[in-house]
């Protein structure tokens, strides 16, 4: 494995694995979130929140997830910087060539937009639940009332709630775009692609990106307009 | 089937005396170009008219003029090998342009391909990658087994041939925002990895070529697919996946 | 005549090469390391030679004018490479390949060389496959073959329509291996400007670095020139823009003799000229004639309507189509050799049956093959060629017949070499299309690739040892010796002179002019009066060139106009030499057709009594008539017959 991490493909593999890991996290996170839709009393969701907050495995995974993000971002930055250095002079005229997607050329920007959102998101939820402990409590269990925390955000802040809703929907879309390219790209990087799989992976990535984008947008919309 | 005549064209082209000087764009007017002419014939005509005016003609690379030697380059109106697909610049015809149009011509812009003069760049870094391992180690001295002793399934031959069709033009790196040489390297690695003859050295080959590619300062592939879209030989990025596979499985054993 | 000792080995034809190899001298591995060999050209011939010699242990310096060895014009060969493998079991053999080649060459080649070519041909295929050349395969995994013009067996190996490319990339890969191991030093973007001769032996070359414009001196114990053909004398040809006869002419002017310069092959299936802005002609592979049928209208009115664009090919009913090749040559039909097919097309067009607006085109029709085999089969066979045709002409050949016309394609003539491929200058060798040796007056399709690789992989590695064995005591030539300095000075003076003209016309102007003269008088049909006119006109053109040329820019640095000027200066001299040769050869043979020498039904008539020799020319000075030497060809193994493809 000597020099593995300094090779271009090695670095790409790190990107790909960390990206896929984050994808898994997104899926878990999304499925829990969607519980809100199925129980307007919030019981179901809060149970899940409670489970996530107390389960030792999840506790272990928290720092791992953080590392995943850091690795992903650090390598994204290294790759992006190297790539800019490899192209010192830019073209005067560039036409949109028929590449796979706009996203494929703007992953770093998309990534940072997602990151910016994440910071907001963490302040709004994670910090309140885990650090300052200012989140509401469910009387019965004594655990955090995640449900209330979430729904309040989208319903109790007047116009600001609409802004939050828009920001969250936008983030969902950006995430979808990031994944539209990232998902199949990760497989390509691992080497899981050939003539036949090429179109399959594209289709899969597109479907998956829609799932993420819609999945994450649907909640704020639901809460803002239907609760 | 007489071709239409383009009465006037404005050719905006990059001029640079040599690697050490700064370049700039110049615009030249030319008249009466038949749409049946090739793009490079248009360049010839422009150069003839420049020489007549005592201006040094625009230097550009070209040789076979039939899309196979890989010598011609040019980034025309924002696209490697110009506004058509599956062709090289020398196969581009003036049918693709309109009267009165301004055509912008730039050299390949890749850090590892420095400009030599005007539109000519130095693509020797591609050769260097191949020197590092783009071959099968067989002596050229005869006494080899009969060719038909090596059976190659038709599909494998087809896929190897798809990859082997690379002409080394550099459009892949030139159209890549990261200046990545992956498609070129993948084409060679994939060609040889698909054949029984190439099995023995496949691991070393992938490692050596990728190491050289990185060393020469090409960028990292982010799978944007621009290379595949502009490759005159339509080499698929599925070959890049094979390169990744070859490289990763070789590296894991180190 | 001693200067033309062809060194043909004794013994029966089939034993000559074996005997020869057994007798020639060999250099020990330890001594090989001390010997430097210069290889100019990295096409199939030069590339294969450089790789093989380096593999043997010599120090090789290889040169090409392109930016990479991989771009030599061998890359453009489409159709395939012959080899006497008899994989199809259709009674092919080394002798049959030899016989076809000699006969196809109209008995103007050297038996021993041609036989050796056929003899080593199977090894070429083995070599290439081992290197990873992806030759076409059958479904069972064995190698596929196709048939080619002028022969009755199927012995052509191919890689889609890109055989030359794949073979060259094979040779280039072999070179890369040696470059990687430090046995070859590659000099790209370098043009050979002069050969250096010291004490009667070739010891090096002078090159111009095309990037910096500087002249460089390179020494070696032997110099191999493998710089390809000179078809570009005609300006328009299927050759690459940079193909040139420069290196061959320089060595000719330094004492290497030039043989049969007038033997030029005109390829019947090229895309017709579209206008006077045309810069080069594109070949449509000969393999197309396997499935395409060549025709023109039977009625002149139809042809005229086609020319005016009032009618389409598809409007002409079956019975009004003249499949003139099938009509004239029933046994070979559309697969007659190139020279025959080309002249037949010219004959029809001259008679007023040409089918495009210039009247210089015939149809090549795939409708019949599509009807018989189906669209998919034809697509699989020729897809990329059809696509190329459509890109160039904007016409879809699946729907509408292709239009083709003959164009200059290959030069059989070249530097005279003996059996060892050595020129008349000791230590100076010539390989591949640049030499004259194997194809007589006409080359069969798919045989040039075979020759290039045979020379490079299997002949020169042996024969060069015979000379070098005596050179092991010679130190590496000193590039500061008087001979080198003088050669450099002369080259410098030549460049100065070109610059100092400061006239009014561009290089291309003269090149086109030369092309017109050559095509008109030294083209597909030649006669005494025309050839004399040609010589006069060329001499006049030379004067104009040297008094009215204009090269803008600087001597230093890259100067593409200067590069062209250097080449065109040599083309003019070469054109003149070709005209002298054509004038001397008052017979029709192969690609050379003298209107004075024809049978009653208009077919070419050979004159074995007076012309069964190679015309070998010795340079006598600028603008002076060269001296003719003759290498009499002895045919001990084939009977000379008039070629008949009827
Ligand atoms: C369009 C086309 C299709 C063909 N198809 C076939 C086919 O199907 N089958 C077949 O058998 N043959 C075919 N031929 C013929 C065959 O390709 C050539 O005859 C053969 O490849 C010549 O090889 P070569 O090595 O002698 O020369 P080339 O491949 O022409 O190489 C010449 C080399 O010399 C170098 N050079 C030239 N001048 C100089 C100089 N002054 N200084 C330094 N370097 C120099 C060049 O850079 C180049 O590397 C075809 C030819 C053409 C043009
Ligand atoms: C939830 C968050 C994220 C997920 C699920 C995710 C997922 C992915 C995936 C799967 C890939 C494809 C890897 C490959 O091409 O092999 C990828 C690529 C990339 N990601 Fe992310 N990512 C996330 C956040 C971020 C962040 C915060 C950044 C910040 C800068 C970022 C920047 C990038 C870049 C630049 C690439 C392209 C790198 C390349 O292809 O070489 N991502 N991402
Ligand atoms: S992969 Fe395609 S674009 Fe890249 S060098 Fe080869 S032919 Fe050119
Ligand atoms: S000039 Fe050869 S590919 Fe364009």
List the helices and strands and how they pair.
The complex is a heterotrimer of chains A (227), B (254) and C (646).
Chain A: H1 8-38, H2 43-54, H3 56-86, H4 102-105, H5 107-131, H6 146-155, H7 159-190, H8 195-226
Chain B: E1 5-15, E2 24-34, H1 39-52, E3 75-76, E4 79-80, E5 102-106, E6 115-117, E7 120-121, H2 124-131, H3 154-164, H4 171-175, H5 182-193, H6 202-215, H7 226-230, H8 238-252
Parallel strand pairs in B: 1-5
Antiparallel strand pairs in B: 1-2, 3-4, 3-5, 6-7
Chain C: H1 13-23, H2 29-32, E1 36-40, H3 44-56, E2 59-63, E3 81-82, H4 94-104, H5 111-131, E4 156-157, H6 163-180, E5 184-187, E6 190-198, E7 201-209, E8 215-219, E9 222-225, H7 246-253, E10 258-259, E11 264-270, E12 293-297, H8 300-308, E13 321-322, H9 324-328, H10 338-353, E14 362-365, H11 367-373, H12 375-393, E15 402-411, E16 414-415, E17 428-430, H13 448-468, H14 482-501, H15 507-521, H16 528-548, H17 560-584, H18 608-611, E18 613-618, E19 627-632
Parallel strand pairs in C: 1-2, 1-9, 2-5, 9-17
Antiparallel strand pairs in C: 3-4, 6-7, 7-8, 10-16, 10-18, 11-15, 12-13, 12-14, 14-15, 18-19
The complex binds flavin-adenine dinucleotide (FAD), protoporphyrin IX containing FE, iron/sulfur cluster and FE2/S2 (inorganic) cluster (FES).
Flavin-adenine dinucleotide binds at residues 40-46, 63-66, 72-74, 76-81, 163-164, 191-192, 226-229, 238-239, 243-244, 246-247, 283, 409-410, 432-434, 445-449, 452 of chain C.
Cofactor (chain B): [2Fe-2S] cluster; [3Fe-4S] cluster; [4Fe-4S] cluster
InterPro entries (chain B): 2Fe-2S_ferredoxin-like_sf (IPR036010), 2Fe2S_fd_BS (IPR006058), 4Fe4S_Fe-S-bd (IPR017896), Beta-grasp_dom_sf (IPR012675), Helical_ferredxn (IPR009051), SDH/FRD_Iron-Sulfur (IPR050573), Succ_DH/fum_Rdtase_Fe-S (IPR004489), Succ_DH/fum_Rdtase_N (IPR025192)
Organism (chain B): Balneicella halophila
């Amino acid at each position: 494995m000597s020099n593995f991490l300094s090779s271009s493909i090695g670095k790409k593999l790190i990107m790909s694995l960390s990206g896929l890991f984050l994808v898994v996290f997104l899926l878990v996170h999304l499925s829990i979130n969607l519980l809100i839709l199925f129980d307007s009393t919030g019981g179901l969701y809060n149970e899940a929140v409670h489970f996530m907050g107390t389960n030792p495995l999840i506790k272990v995974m928290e720092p791992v997830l953080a590392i995943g993000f850091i690795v992903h971002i650090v390598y994204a930055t290294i790759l992006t910087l190297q790539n800019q250095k490899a192209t010192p002079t830019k073209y005067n005229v560039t036409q949109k060539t028929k590449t796979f997607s706009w996203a494929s050329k703007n992953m770093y920007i998309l990534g940072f937009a997602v990151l910016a959102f994440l910071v907001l998101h963490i302040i709004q939820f994670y910090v309140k639940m885990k650090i300052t402990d200012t989140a509401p409590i469910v009387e019965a269990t004594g655990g955090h009332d995640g449900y209330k925390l979430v729904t309040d955000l989208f319903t109790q802040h007047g116009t600001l709630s609409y802004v939050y809703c828009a920001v969250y929907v936008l983030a969902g879309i950006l995430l979808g775009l990031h994944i539209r390219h990232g998902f199949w790209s990760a497989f390509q990087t691992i080497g899981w692609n050939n003539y036949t799989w090429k179109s399959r992976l594209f289709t899969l990535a597109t479907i998956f990106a829609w799932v993420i984008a819609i999945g994450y947008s649907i909640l704020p919309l639901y809460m803002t307009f239907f609760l | 089937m007489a071709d239409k005549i383009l009465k006037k064209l404005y050719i905006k082209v990059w001029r640079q005396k040599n690697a050490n000087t700064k370049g700039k764009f110049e615009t030249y007017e030319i008249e009466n170009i038949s749409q049946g002419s090739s793009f490079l014939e248009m360049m010839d005509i422009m150069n003839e008219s420049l020489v007549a005016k005592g201006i040094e003609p625009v230097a550009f690379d070209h040789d076979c003029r039939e899309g196979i030697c890989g010598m011609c380059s040019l980034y025309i109106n924002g696209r490697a090998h110009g506004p058509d697909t599956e062709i090289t610049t020398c196969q581009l015809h003036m049918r693709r342009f309109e009267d009165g149009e301004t055509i912008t011509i730039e050299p390949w812009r890749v850090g590892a391909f420095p400009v030599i003069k005007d539109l000519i760049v130095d693509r020797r870094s591609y050769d260097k990658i191949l020197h590092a391992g783009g071959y099968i180690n067989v002596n050229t001295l005869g006494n080899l087994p009969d060719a038909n002793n090596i059976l190659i399934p038709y599909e494998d031959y087809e896929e190897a041939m798809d990859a082997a069709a690379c002409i080394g033009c550099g459009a892949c790196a030139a159209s890549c925002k990261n200046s990545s040489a992956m498609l070129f390297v993948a084409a060679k690695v994939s060609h040889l990895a698909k054949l029984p003859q190439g099995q023995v050295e496949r691991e070393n080959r992938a490692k050596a070529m990728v190491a050289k590619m990185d060393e020469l300062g090409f960028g990292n592939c982010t799978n944007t697919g621009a290379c595949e879209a502009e490759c005159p030989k339509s080499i698929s990025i599925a070959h890049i996946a094979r390169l990744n596979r070859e490289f990763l499985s070789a590296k894991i054993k180190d | 005549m001693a200067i033309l000792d062809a060194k043909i080995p004794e013994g029966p034809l089939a034993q000559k090469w074996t005997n020869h190899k057994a007798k020639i001298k060999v250099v020990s591995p330890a001594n090989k390391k001390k010997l430097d060999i210069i290889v100019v050209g990295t096409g199939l011939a030069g590339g294969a030679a450089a790789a093989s010699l380096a593999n043997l242990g010599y120090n090789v310096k290889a040169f090409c004018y392109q930016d990479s060895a991989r771009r030599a014009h061998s890359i453009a060969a489409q159709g395939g490479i012959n080899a006497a493998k008899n994989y199809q079991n259709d009674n092919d053999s080394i002798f049959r390949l030899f016989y076809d080649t000699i006969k196809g060459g109209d008995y103007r080649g050297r038996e021993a060389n041609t036989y050796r070519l056929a003899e080593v041909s199977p090894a070429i295929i083995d070599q290439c496959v081992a290197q990873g050349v992806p030759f076409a395969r059958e479904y069972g995994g064995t190698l596929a073959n196709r048939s080619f013009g002028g022969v009755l067996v199927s012995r052509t190996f191919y890689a889609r329509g890109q055989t030359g490319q794949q073979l060259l990339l094979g040779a280039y890969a072999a070179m890369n291996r040696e470059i990687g191991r430090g046995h070859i030093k590659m000099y790209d973007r370098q043009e050979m400007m002069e050969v250096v001769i010291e004490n009667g032996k070739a010891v090096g070359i002078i090159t111009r670095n095309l990037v910096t414009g500087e002249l460089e001196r390179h020494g070696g114990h032997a110099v191999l020139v493998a710089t390809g053909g000179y078809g570009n004398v005609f300006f328009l040809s299927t050759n690459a823009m940079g193909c040139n006869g420069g290196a061959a002419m320089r060595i000719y002017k330094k004492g290497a003799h030039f043989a049969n310069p007038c033997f030029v092959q005109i390829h019947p299936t090229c895309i017709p000229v579209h206008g006077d802005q045309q810069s080069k002609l594109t070949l449509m592979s000969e393999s197309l004639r396997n499935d395409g049928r060549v025709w023109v209208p039977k009625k002149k009115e139809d042809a005229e309507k086609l020319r005016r664009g009032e009618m389409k090919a598809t409007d002409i009913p079956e019975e009004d189509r003249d499949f003139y090749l099938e009509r004239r040559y029933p046994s070979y039909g559309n697969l007659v050799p190139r020279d025959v097919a080309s002249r037949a097309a010219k004959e029809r067009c001259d008679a007023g049956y040409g089918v495009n607006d210039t009247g210089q085109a015939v149809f090549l029709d795939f409708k019949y093959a599509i009807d018989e085999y189906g669209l998919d089969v034809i697509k699989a066979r020729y897809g990329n060629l059809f696509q190329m045709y459509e890109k160039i002409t904007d016409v879809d050949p699946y729907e509408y017949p292709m239009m083709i016309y003959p164009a200059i394609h290959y030069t059989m003539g070249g530097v005279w070499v003996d059996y060892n491929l050595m020129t008349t200058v000791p230590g100076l060798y010539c390989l591949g299309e640049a030499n004259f040796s194997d194809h007589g007056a006409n080359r069969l399709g798919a045989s040039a690739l075979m020759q290039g690789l045979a020379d490079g992989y299997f002949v020169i590695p042996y024969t060069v040892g015979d000379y070098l064995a005596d050179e092991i005591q010679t130190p590496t030539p000193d590039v500061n010796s008087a001979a080198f300095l003088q050669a450099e000075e002369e080259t410098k003076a030549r460049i100065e002179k070109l610059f100092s003209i400061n006239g009014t016309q561009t290089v291309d102007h003269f090149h086109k002019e030369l092309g017109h003269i050559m095509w008109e008088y030294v083209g597909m049909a030649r006669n005494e009066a025309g050839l004399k006119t040609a010589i006069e006109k060329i001499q006049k053109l030379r004067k104009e060139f040297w008094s009215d040329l204009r090269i803008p820019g600087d001597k230093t640095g890259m100067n593409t106009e200067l590069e062209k000027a250097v080449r065109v200066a040599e083309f003019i001299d070469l054109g003149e030499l070709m005209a002298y040769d054509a004038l001397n050869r008052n017979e029709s043979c192969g690609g050379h057709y003298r209107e004075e020498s024809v049978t009653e039904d208009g077919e070419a008539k050979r004159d074995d009594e007076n012309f069964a020799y190679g015309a070998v020319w010795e340079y006598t000075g600028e603008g002076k008539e060269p001296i003719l030497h003759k290498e009499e060809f002895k045919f001990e193994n084939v009977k000379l017959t008039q070629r008949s493809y009827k």
